[in-house]
Amino acid sequence: MDNKLSVIIPVYNVEEYLEQCIESVLEQAYVPFEVILVDDGSTDKSGSICDQYERADRRVKVIHQPNQGHTIARQNGFRASDGDYIIFIDSDDWIKDEMFALMMDKVLKENADIVQCGFKAVKGNGIIDAVSPYEPGLYEKARLTEIIYPTMIYNKAERCFGVAPNMWNKIFRRRLVEEYIYRIDPRIRSGEDGLLTFACFMEAERIYNLRECFYCYRSREMSMCRITDDKRLEENHILFQYYLEWLMPKEILQESIKHYVVNQTLQAVEALMENESLCQIKKKHPYLKKDSLERISIQGVKLTEVNGKKNKMILAGLKL
Predict the structure, then answer these.
(1) Residue 233's pLDDT band (cuts 50, 70, 90)
(2) Closest listed residue to residue 60, CA positions, set 14, 6, 103
(3) Which of 152, 170, 178 is nearest to 247 (CA)?
(4) Over the stretch 111-136, which tens digit does the pLDDT of each residue have?
């Protein structure tokens, strides 16, 4: 079906939230869409909830797989999809009723490769609207190059992402996702959203930015997409190899990538320094000292360009 939207939802042990997520999708006014639920080896009732929806609604397709992580779940969901456009939704979140209709309206009227909206960050009883710093409207290649790309990965003024790295508040033209999704290493458990998002932004010719917050992101203490253990530096190193290959050759991105890499490295090193000295960390992870994107970035970012006295001290130690 022309202009069909494929909604891919990886599912893992979210029985408490899953029905709200699926219902919010099935209630969308936009007609030509399919929902692909990828049960990633759930041990609670999530898998059976998925099956119930597949039996009740012909738009729903369910894949059951052994637990392999959300990257492979997304890859398998994409492989089973046939829509012209793709959106990925997290199974513990939900969306506003008008999301698909209004975003697909911009996709079709503006011939956009990507449409992104704002989102509501929900934690407990608190809700914060997170909107793009860029003006709403259509960005063709010249405006993307002038306005979006220089600050997309790192906005120096705000010292954060310019474009939210998450995939779930964006509708992508299929061919953009297809170019990259199967090439992402499943060992990466954090940061792969941004990798795919930024790669697709660079390939897109027309992107439409909406300020409305249609997506509701549930911030939880435990999330299938969050990593806090001591493997973070190693996984970051794998992730950064993709940045080096896919994005670093784009001169317009080089400065912001260096800042992104340094910020991620400082966070990981600071966590490890609770139990190890900086000298021990550098010895265990030799790419911090030579021949890596981490080293290029550490040497390329000034101490005055990072926040906080502790970060400055760690960066100074890493530079030695």
Answers:
(1) very high
(2) 6
(3) 152
(4) 999 999 999 999 888 999 999 999 99
C-beta of residue 60 within 8 angstroms of C-beta of residue 53: yes
Q: Let me know: does 10 contact 224? Beta carbons within 8 Å.
A: yes
Candidates 45, 47, 43, 44; CA nearest to 9 is 47
Question: Over the stretch 46-66, which tens digit does the pLDDT of each residue have?
Answer: 999 999 999 999 999 999 999
pLDDT of residue 159: 82
Query: Quick one: 162 exposed, middle or buried, by C-beta within 10 A (0-12, 13-18, 19+)?
Result: buried
Token couple for 320: 């030695």
Question: Tokens 């996702």 identify what position?
Answer: 177
**pLDDT tens for each residue of 141-162:** 999 999 999 999 999 887 889 9
Share of the chain above pLDDT 70, in %: 96
Candidates 198, 190, 182, 199; CA nearest to 237 is 190
d(CA 225, CA 164): 15
Instruction: Kindly tell me if the per-residue pLDDT of 19 is higher than 70.
Output: yes
Structure-token pair, residue 290: 């030579």
State the chain's mean pLDDT as an integer.
Answer: 94
Residue 228 is predicted with a pLDDT of 45
Going by C-beta distance under 8 Å and a sequence separation of 6 or more, which residues neighbour residue 303? 312, 315, 316
